[in-house]
Amino acid sequence: MDRRSFTKAALSGLAFSFLADSAGRAALTANLQPAAPVPPPVTPHPVTPLTRQPYARLLDRAKAALDEHAHMFELRDRIALADFNAPSRELRFHIVDLLGGHASSYLVSHGRGSDPGHSGWLQTFSNEPNSLASSAGAYKTGQIYEGQHGRAMRLAGLDAQNNNAEMRAIVIHGADYVSEDHIATWGKIGRSEGCFAVARHMLPQLLGLLGPGRMIYANKLTAMGA
């Protein structure tokens, strides 16, 4: 091998060695780069069991009423509770899925005859015509119709303390005085004439979940359960 060939070969080897060394350093540098941070696991929002809800005793009473009136109900998958222990500013109308063990909650009014001073708290029940009061007891949901309040659902009272519900035209309907804006202004929602008035924008969802043929149970339980 002459000097020119030797020099060419040496330079080629040097270049190859340099390239190989550069590639190795690049790989090493890449391996030293910090890995992308692993996102923390998502913690599911805890769901309070129905047995620990504030309306748990009322739910027990409603289940007993559902059994008592079992011959009236083919649909026993969902029931609604009007928990009049709570003030009107709270979500106190609960549609409970008895199969899935969860509930959705809404604002609901009580009658002006049940709260003459407009305190925001139901004071008394009445089944008397023209009392403008709410009535306690079990109701069966009925026909959905268009009335003076727009879309509404008829109710039949099943107990001695609410069996005038149909005669009194006690229904579920939407009302402008049942809203978060009303609460922000007045600290409570308005009163009905004994009907279960709910927020207008929530009415379609509520009627869809209930539908005809299910039970609503309304009551205010004292500390002794009566």
Unreliable spans: 5-20
Strand order of the largest sheet: 3-2-1-8-4-5-6-7
Note the gap between the termini. 114 Å
Total number of helical segments?
4
Q: Radius of gyration, rounded?
A: 34 Å
Could you give the topology of this structure?
Elements: H1 3-32, H2 56-68, E1 78-83, E2 93-97, E3 102-106, E4 137-147, E5 150-157, E6 171-175, H3 180-186, E7 196-199, H4 203-210, E8 215-219
Parallel strand pairs: 1-8, 6-7
Antiparallel strand pairs: 1-2, 2-3, 4-5, 4-8, 5-6
Structural description of this entry:
The structure is a single chain. The chain has helices at residues 3-32, 56-68, 180-186, 203-210, and strands spanning 78-83, 93-97, 102-106, 137-147, 150-157, 171-175, 196-199, 215-219. By secondary structure, the protein is an alpha+beta fold. Strands 3-2-1-8-4-5-6-7 form an eight-stranded mixed β-sheet. The protein is globular, with a radius of gyration of 34 Å.
Short key terms for the protein model shown above:
globular; single chain; 226 residues; alpha+beta; 8-stranded mixed β-sheet
